[in-house]
């Protein structure tokens, strides 16, 4: 195991999936020369070229539609939206097209689309840049919504999302990109399921169920409570939709 940042774990997952499957390509605003808003795609343009690393106009509806079309055509696009706030401009395509096409055609077409986007509050970026829409999107049948909290989870879940036959909204909290954590050594293949919660801290007195950045806050709170002899269980949902709490096994 080695210690890397959340940002680097994302980049490794994208790169490994692009090397593994030539159908995988990435598209989005400023993802090529600039390397993405949070530098996640830095260096990928130089390695894979403009055919598989596509800079796009600032037009979320257009690029989301292009990604949906590419997925229906047999490719596996990873679309980066600069922020989840801007996903509102593409909501019709996400909700009424990406999430529903498989069902409207009797389950025949697959739509292996990953929509990566930063989200989450706490960064004081103003009203239009600090919104949290995961609960909205979690109510849409046909759309999977995940919010990994650690470098280990974000790498393993992004690889699972790319391989999934259905659209996945992959939300990355803006304040996690520099968080460090253990990830298997390079060359060690692993994935993390998109539908399995995890007990991060076992206990029986009180349970906190959380996800994304608040996992780290909850774990710190558990440490503080332990000083007063209160043992707190912390469960990391990982996914917002689907939620499979029944699959969490209490290890105490």
* DSSP strand tally: 12
Rough shape?
Answer: globular
Helix-strand topology string: EHEHEHEHHEHEHEEEEHEE
For the biggest sheet, the summary is: 7 strands, mixed
Unreliable residue runs: 247-252
Structural class computed from helices and strand pairing? alpha/beta
Query: How much helix is in the residues?
Result: 25-40%
Radius of gyration: 18 Å
Determine the mean pLDDT.
92
Strand percentage lies at 15-25%
How are the strands of the biggest sheet laid out side by side? 3-2-4-5-7-6-12
Number of helices: 8
End-to-end Cα distance, whole Å, is 25 Å
Describe the overall structure.
The chain is α/β, with parallel strands linked by helices. The chain contains eight helices and twelve strands. The protein has helices at residues 6-20, 44-48, 60-72, 91-98, 101-104, 134-137, 151-163, 214-226; strands at residues 2-5, 24-28, 53-55, 76-80, 114-119, 144-146, 168-173, 180-183, 198-201, 206-210, 232-236, 239-241. The chain has a seven-stranded mixed beta sheet, sandwiched between helices. Helix 7 (151-163) links the parallel strand 6 (144-146) and strand 7. Residues 247-252 have low confidence and may be disordered.
């Amino acid at each position: 195991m080695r210690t890397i940042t959340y940002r680097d774990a994302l980049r490794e997952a994208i790169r490994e999936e692009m090397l593994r499957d030539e159908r995988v390509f990435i598209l989005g605003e400023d993802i090529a020369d600039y390397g993405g808003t949070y530098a996640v795609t830095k260096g990928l343009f130089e390695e894979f070229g403009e055919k598989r690393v596509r800079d796009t106009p600032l037009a979320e509806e257009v690029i989301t539609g292009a990604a949906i079309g590419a997925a229906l055509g047999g490719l596996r696009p990873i679309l980066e939206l600069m922020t989840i706030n801007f996903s509102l401009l593409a909501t019709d395509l996400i909700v009424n097209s990406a999430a529903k096409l498989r069902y409207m055609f009797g389950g025949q077409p697959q739509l292996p689309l990953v929509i990566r986007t930063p989200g989450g509050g706490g960064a004081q970026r103003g009203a239009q840049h600090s919104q949290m829409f995961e609960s909205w999107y979690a109510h849409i049948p046909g759309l999977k919504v995940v919010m990994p909290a650690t470098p280990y989870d974000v790498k393993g879940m992004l690889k699972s999302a790319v391989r999934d036959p259905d659209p996945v909204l992959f939300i990355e909290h803006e304040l996690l990109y520099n968080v460090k954590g253990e990830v298997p050594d390079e060359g060690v293949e692993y994935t993390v399921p998109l539908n399995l919660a995890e007990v991060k801290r076992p206990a029986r007195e009180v349970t906190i169920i959380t996800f994304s950045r608040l996992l780290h806050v909850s774990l710190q709170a558990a440490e503080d409570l332990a000083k007063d002899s209160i043992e707190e269980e912390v469960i990391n949902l990982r996914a917002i939709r689907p939620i499979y709490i029944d699959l969490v096994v209490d290890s105490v």
